[in-house]
Write a structure and sequence with these properties.
9% of the residues lie in helices and 16% in strands. By secondary structure, it is mainly β. The protein has a domain of 71 residues: Alpha-Beta Plaits (2-Layer Sandwich). The strands form 2 sheets. It has a two-stranded antiparallel sheet with strand order 1-4. β2 and β3 form a beta hairpin.
């Protein structure tokens, strides 16, 4: 039996954004990474009944059934800290901060 924690395998993701289109949540729960053009995380709709009409309660969520690359799966436990792909957001390096009191250069 599957669980209710969604994990995205970014190696399988083809960047079609179907999971985003299928997500019934507004705003959607899937995080799109524009640097690699792939979905990298789902906001883990834990215990939420967001099922596709075909699956119904106890079925598969719409994002899982709609993924043509089968890059999404449901697991019963949150991934361990050692296995965080598809669970954590890979953040871009922060932009350098301007010193306090500095003024923006004129263009």
């Amino acid at each position: 039996e599957h669980g209710n924690v969604r994990v995205i395998d970014t190696d399988k993701c083809i960047g079609c954004k179907r999971c985003i289109q299928m997500c019934p949540q507004r705003p959607h729960r899937t995080v799109w990474n524009p640097f690699i053009n792939k979905s990298t995380k789902c906001d883990l709709c834990i215990d939420a009944p967001y099922w596709s009409k075909k699956g119904g309660p106890g079925g598969e969520p719409a994002c899982v059934t709609g993924c043509p690359a089968k890059a999404l799966k449901l697991v019963s436990k949150t991934p361990s800290q050692e296995d965080t792909r598809g669970y954590d957001v890979d953040l871009a390096p922060p932009a350098p901060a301007m010193p306090l009191g500095a003024k923006k250069p004129a263009s």
